[in-house]
User: Fold this.
Amino acid sequence: MNNRIKNCFSKAKSEGRGAFVAYLTMGFPTIEASERAAEEAIANGADILELGVPFSDPFADGGVIRSAAYEALKNGVTLSDVIALAERLRTKHPETGLVLFSYYNPVFSMGLDAFARAVADAGIDAVLVVDLPLEERDELLSRLRPYGVGFVPLIAPNTPLERVKESEDGIGDSFLYVITVKGTTGERTELPPDLAKRLDAIRAVAHLPIAAGFGISTRAQADEVSRHADGFIVGSALVKCVAEGRPPCLN
Assistant:
């Protein structure tokens, strides 16, 4: 099993900062443009990329990412296209963490065995499946483990600490994605006042690194989160940059 994700967090910690996890919708505005955006995100300091697979009902996502997903689907972008893109990125960026971010339907439709082989062959480090809860994930994890591919659990604002600990079991080289706010993804002018306390509590019981996401849109917010977490995740703000024809970066 590779330890690429672990190394990304360790490197960030050694440099006195939080690891920068960058989400981008692949295929938006085109598959070629999204690949360029991924390259630009790495150039702008992203330690780990979340490669978003477009889906027709992205219920966890706000307007920016939802619109990007619809545009990518209009372009005919598929899960296989995103995996192929990941393989190209892996060839050029051997140290960057790569996480495939998807809903379960495209994964299940490909076939779990075929999916596990494909992501492993592409050099993807871990998979995040938005709508696959703790109680139903073993069928997929059992396919990923033999290939050394990790799994990224989502930790909701109301997830009990005991369930946080259960979420770490058997997921490999990975991290916990701690959702900062209730609701969908999207930029926020302010993060919850009790977020620091919540992150500290999770960090105290977790063995894996924790990265906080949903709503982070400024460097100041990222720096504040990084005082209480091992990394921060930015999505909508970066996808908005791409929509406006700008390189994805955090201001």
